[in-house]
Amino acid sequence: MEDILFTLGNCPVSTGSFIEAIAVIITFLCIVCAVKEKIWTFPLGMAGTALYFFVFFTQRVYSSMALQIVFFAFNAYGLYKWTHPDKQEVTKSDNTLAVTLLTLKNRILVVAIIAILTLALGYVMSNIDTWLPSLFPEKAKYVYIDTFILSASIVAQYLMALKKLENWAIWLIVDILSTPFYAITVGWATGILYFVFVFTAISGLIEWKKSYKAVK
Questions:
Q1: How far is CA 211 from the centre of its chain?
Q2: Full domain range(s) for residue 199
Q3: Which one of 69, 213, 214, 216 is separated from 205 by 20 to 30 angstroms, measured CA to CA?
């Protein structure tokens, strides 16, 4: 039974539910800042990932839990990259990192990396309760869906740190899949958050495309 943190009206609010709600708010603000190309996306992203690490651990969604560590690192890298671009990477209007596109070769490489990571991590997460029973006493749920979300999200977050337009296309796929997945495994608040993210990914794709065309 979960610890009850407080009661809202007649509804008890557990510690896990409260942390999830805070994580939802922070992560939403993070994505809004990303769409607008605001540097605050990265500090907010680091705070949100720290909270979601706890949420996913308590729900035994281990791949998504591990993903938060990678997100934290990439958010730190993105904060540095956006504020310290190379001279050839800056926009014409100011000294910030410009939106660019991947080459066709790199797009194919991105797809291959996501596929390989999904299969490899899926195998690991399928057996992690056997290999490390003291840390993971119960079997992970929905392993390959979880590891695809993890793998695609890692790549998308890295491309966002590099300010590549294609990151939003990957996020769109991730968000569509994550909406029912997280609603089932974590809670309705996170499911709704990822449903909203479907539209923010579309908005990000449109806004960053405008930004890309403006500096060509």
A1: 22
A2: 4-214
A3: 69
Our count of domains for the chain comes to 1
The number of residues in the chain equals 216
Determine phi and psi for 205, rounding to 5 degrees.
-60, -45
Backbone angles phi and psi of 134, in degrees to 5: -70, -35
* Residue 144 phi, psi (nearest 5): -75, -30
What backbone phi and psi angles, to 5 degrees, belong to 36? -85, 5
Cα distance between residue 71 and residue 45, in whole Å: 8
How many angstroms separate the CA atoms of 159 and 128, rounded?
Answer: 29
pLDDT tens digits, one per residue of 189-212: 778 888 999 999 999 999 999 988
DSSP secondary structure code for residue 85 in this structure: -
CB 148 within 8 A of CB 114: yes
Residues 145, 31, 46, CA angle at the centre, nearest 5°?
Answer: 80
The answer to whether the beta carbons of residues 201 and 178 sit under 8 Å apart is no
Helix and strand element counts for the chain (H, E): 7, 2
**C-alpha–C-alpha distance, residues 213 and 210, integer Å:** 5
Q: Retrieve residue 212's tokens.
A: 């890309």
Contact 130, 167 (CB under 8 A): no
Read off the pTM.
0.79
Read off the tokens for 142.
């929905």
Burial category of 198 from C-beta neighbours within 10 Å (exposed 0-12, middle 13-18, buried 19 and up): middle
